Structure formats: structure tokens, C-alpha cells
């Protein structure tokens, strides 16, 4: 697909808004002590602006720095013990760059559904003073796009008193909500930095099996929500003979592009934005970002819009495919913590699991390998002490491992346990059966 690119020449732009363009160091001077600063995420973290802010650490005190989901190349530089008086890392999701700061106690996480964060901002529970964005060059009308990461950035750009933006030719221009006019940007800094490239993960043998089991359950005309990694890539690869699929998802990845180009994903059966692919952020390679650039068949929207369960449900045959850290014998799903240690966040799992379950013909899947790399079963008698429940036992439908798919909807507790034991790793089944016998008694024994 060829996209017509129309950008405003920087020489003309300088004549119109010359005062807006400054160095990163000058831009960072707009940040004051005790400000609340939003930092854009996904693969589009504005690293140049972050470094300029951190360079002023000796001048700043108590600056709260907010972020959420991100795939970064390094830990946040403002989350160290040496800078604890200058910066307070805050997050709505434990991304890879925040994990060390939060685990060490120098940062903190606010529990929430990702789709509800924009309401926290718009309703004033969190009031941003400054938003740091990574934007495309402006179009002929002066609008810049930050469409790699619209998710929380839309509400931040709407409400922040000050916007500081990297103007970056490497950022694709996307349609939807993630637009800001150059005149709204208080300080613009020219950069030429590639967004983080997330290479396509080749599924392993177990993941290919899991992908195949899930693909068997997906009908033609379904609308997909799918993530990133080996299992999602295996699912997508197994869908090449499907027809008229749609995409309404949180994250857009490289894996969907071949299905779009071949016409397998054509969005023709959707109710919400029929004919268009919908996401709120992207995680991929240069190929994906080039595909996104000035593509009118793609909408990048506010996460409050994409993740609204009552919008998701309007698409028939909505399919939600998510992962887990562990699942207990009743179908409770932990996806955000390892015991008491917060490892990630709820993200959009609950939003899409709920919305797809309400959809006419919809299905939900929790997909995971049966054991960890250390050989520990991911299906457990009970969740690890301190583990958080992201998807309740009342919502779980399919749980899928390399040993098959357990369908839990409508099953009693003993029946759930039996189905889950059947897809557990063989090395764990004897222990799980003993636990099920002790917990459920004759109601489980009668199923043997």
C-alpha cells in the first residue's frame, strides 16, 4: 500500500512558529519543582527530553514523573537513589523501564484499568503540569501526530498546562485522536531518533501448538484483540486461510501486516469503524511504522475509546487473546504480579476480556506455556500468596497451553479443575489432582 505523504517544510515552519523551536536544555527549563510531568510511552519514549529534564536534577525537587506501558532501551534515569529528592517516578503500569525503580521502592504504581486512566486525568484526580511527547513532523495544516502511542498521551496533551515535544521525522503520521497543533506546543525540539524497534518473535514449538489451538476457535468474520510475542504471532500465522477478519486492539504489531496486505483482515464485518483497523498504540519495527504513516485505513485512538468494554462488545465475534503469569484450579488469572512483586499491570486485559465476553459470538482466551523456563507449573492449586487477580474466575472462558484448550464457561469448580489439569504439564498433574481432591472432595473424584 502506498501512502501519500504531505509534510510542511521546516523552512516554512520556522517562519511561522520560529519561537517554538528551542534546544532540549531550553525546553526542560519549563519544568518546575513539584510539577507533575507525563512522559509518553509505547516504543516512543521521548528520551532526549527526559535526559534534558534529568540534567536539571540539582535545580528540581519533588517532580512527579508519570508513565504507563512502554518498551524502552534502558531503565528510567530519574528512578535512582541519588535523584530521589528531585524526581518521584509514578506509573499506571510496570513497564520494563520502570520495573527496577518500583521494585527498589523509589517509584510507585497506581492500580487501575488502563482504559480508565484518561478519566483519572480528565476528572482531575491526576493534574499534569507538563506533557513530554514524541511527535511526527507537522502536516500541511500544522498538525503533528504522536500516533505510535495515543493511549494515555491524548488525555495528557488535552489537559497539560505545558506541552514539550520532540519533532521527529521518524515518527509516523497517523489518523485518529493523537494529533496536536504546532501552535499548542510550548517548546518544540528537533530530533532524529528511531522509535524502539521490536523485532518479530519467532514462536517456539509449544507456542506454535498454542497458536493452532486458538486459531481453531476463531471463526471467519471475527474481530481480534491480540498482543505481542511468540503466542500472538503463532495465532496470526495460523489465520492465513480465514476470511473477513477485523482488528480492534490495544497494540498494533508487525504480525498483523501480512494478514492486512493479503486481505484476511479487511474489517468488513465490524460494527465499530467498519473498514478500518483500530488500535491505541503500536509495537513493532520500521516496517510497521512505515505502514502506519499517512494510512487512512488505520485509526489510532485514545485508550479510553479503544478499551471501552461496551464499545468492544458492539463488534460481533470479538476475540480477546491475552496471557497470564499463573492460573489457579478455579480459573482465577494472575497477569500482573509474581507473588507480592508487581511485575507489569492490568493493562487492557480486563477491558477486552469483559467486552469480548459480552459480544455476540465473542470468545476470550488466556494463552500461556504450561510451565515457566524454570520448570514451574503455571497452573497452580491456588495462586501464589500475594498474587493479584486480573481476570476473575467468573470471566475466564478458554485457558490454552501446548497441551490443549480448557473451556471453563458454565463449568462448576470441580469440572474446571479437571479441565485445567488436563492441559497442565504432565509433571504437575499428580500434584494438581491431589490438591483438587482435597479441595473439592467427591465432586472432583466422581469425574475421574
Whole-number radius of gyration? 23 Å
DSSP, total strands = 25
Spatial strand order of the main sheet: 4-3-2-1-5-7-10
Instruction: Count up the domains.
Output: 2
Distance between the termini: 56 Å
CATH superfamily of the largest domain: Acetyl-CoA hydrolase/transferase C-terminal domain
Average pLDDT for all residues: 91
Main pleated-sheet profile:
7 strands, parallel
SS-based structural class?
A: alpha/beta
CATH architecture assignment name of the largest domain? 3-Layer(aba) Sandwich
**Count of alpha/pi helices:** 16
Report the sheet-strand fraction: 15-25%
Level of helix content?
A: 25-40%
User: Globular, elongated, flat, extended or rod-shaped: what is the shape?
Assistant: globular
- In CATH, the topology of the largest domain is named Glutaconate Coenzyme A-transferase
Taking pLDDT < 50 over at least 5 consecutive residues as the criterion, the unreliable ranges are 1-6
- The CATH C-level name of the largest domain is Alpha Beta
Plain-language structure description:
The protein has 448 residues and is α/β, with parallel strands linked by helices. The chain has two domains: 10-190, Glutaconate Coenzyme A-transferase, CATH 3.40.1080.10; 205-445, Glutaconate Coenzyme A-transferase (3-Layer(aba) Sandwich), CATH 3.40.1080.20. The strands form seven sheets. Strands 4-3-2-1-5-7-10 form a seven-stranded parallel sheet, with helices on both faces. It has a six-stranded mixed sheet with strand order 12-11-17-22-24-25, with helices on both faces. Helix 7 (205-217) packs across helix 8 (230-237) and helix 14 (413-423) packs antiparallel against helix 15 (426-440). The chain is globular, with a radius of gyration of 23 Å.
Amino acid at each position: 500500500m502506498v501512502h501519500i505523504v504531505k509534510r510542511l517544510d521546516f523552512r516554512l515552519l520556522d517562519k511561522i512558529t520560529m519561537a517554538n523551536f528551542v534546544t532540549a536544555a531550553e525546553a526542560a527549563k519549563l519544568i518546575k519543582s513539584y510539577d507533575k510531568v507525563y512522559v509518553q510511552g509505547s516504543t516512543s519514549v521521548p528520551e532526549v527530553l527526559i535526559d534534558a529534564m534529568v540534567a536539571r536534577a540539582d535545580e528540581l525537587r519533588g517532580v512527579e514523573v508519570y508513565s504507563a506501558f512502554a518498551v524502552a532501551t534502558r531503565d528510567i534515569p530519574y528512578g535512582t537513589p541519588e535523584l530521589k529528592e528531585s524526581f518521584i517516578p509514578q506509573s499506571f503500569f510496570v513497564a520494563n523501564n520502570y520495573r527496577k525503580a518500583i521494585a527498589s521502592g523509589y517509584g510507585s504504581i497506581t492500580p487501575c484499568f488502563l482504559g480508565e486512566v484518561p478519566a483519572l486525568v480528565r476528572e482531575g484526580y491526576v493534574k499534569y503540569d507538563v506533557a513530554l511527547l514524541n511527535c511526527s513532523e507537522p502536516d500541511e495544516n500544522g498538525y503533528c501526530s504522536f500516533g505510535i502511542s495515543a493511549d494515555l498521551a491524548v488525555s495528557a496533551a488535552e489537559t497539560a498546562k505545558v506541552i514539550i515535544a520532540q519533532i521527529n521525522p521518524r515518527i509516523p503520521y497517523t489518523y485518529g485522536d493523537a494529533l496536536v497543533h504546532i501552535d499548542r506546543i510550548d517548546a518544540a525540539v528537533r530530533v532524529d531518533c528511531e522509535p524502539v524497534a521490536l523485532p518479530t518473535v519467532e514462536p517456539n514449538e509449544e507456542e506454535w501448538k498454542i497458536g493452532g489451538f486458538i486459531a481453531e476457535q476463531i471463526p471467519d468474520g471475527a474481530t481480534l484483540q491480540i498482543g505481542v510475542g511468540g503466542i500472538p504471532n503463532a495465532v496470526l500465522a495460523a489465520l492465513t486461510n480465514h476470511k473477513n477478519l477485523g482488528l480492534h486492539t490495544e497494540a498494533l504489531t508487525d504480525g498483523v501486516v501480512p494478514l492486512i496486505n493479503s486481505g484476511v483482515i479487511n474489517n468488513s464485518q465490524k460494527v465499530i469503524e467498519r473498514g478500518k483497523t483500530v488500535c491505541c498504540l503500536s509495537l513493532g519495527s520500521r516496517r510497521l511504522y512505515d505502514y502506519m504513516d499517512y494510512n487512512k485505513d488505520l485509526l489510532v485512538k485514545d485508550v479510553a475509546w479503544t478499551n471501552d468494554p461496551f464499545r468492544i462488545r458492539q463488534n460481533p465475534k470479538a476475540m480477546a487473546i491475552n496471557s497470564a503469569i499463573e492460573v489457579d484450579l478455579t480459573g482465577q488469572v494472575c497477569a500482573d504480579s509474581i507473588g507480592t512483586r508487581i511485575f507489569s499491570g492490568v493493562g487492557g486485559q480486563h477491558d477486552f476480556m469483559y467486552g469480548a465476553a459480552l459480544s455476540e459470538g465473542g470468545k476470550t482466551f488466556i494463552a500461556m506455556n504450561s510451565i515457566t523456563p524454570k520448570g514451574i507449573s503455571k497452573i497452580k492449586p491456588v495462586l501464589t500468596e500475594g498474587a493479584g487477580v486480573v481476570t476473575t474466575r467468573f470471566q475466564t472462558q478458554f485457558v490454552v497451553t501446548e497441551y490443549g484448550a480448557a473451556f471453563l464457561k458454565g463449568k462448576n469448580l470441580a469440572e474446571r479443575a479437571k479441565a485445567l489439569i488436563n492441559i497442565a504439564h504432565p509433571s504437575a498433574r499428580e500434584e494438581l489432582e491431589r490438591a483438587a481432591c482435597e479441595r473439592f472432595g467427591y465432586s472432583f473424584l466422581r469425574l475421574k
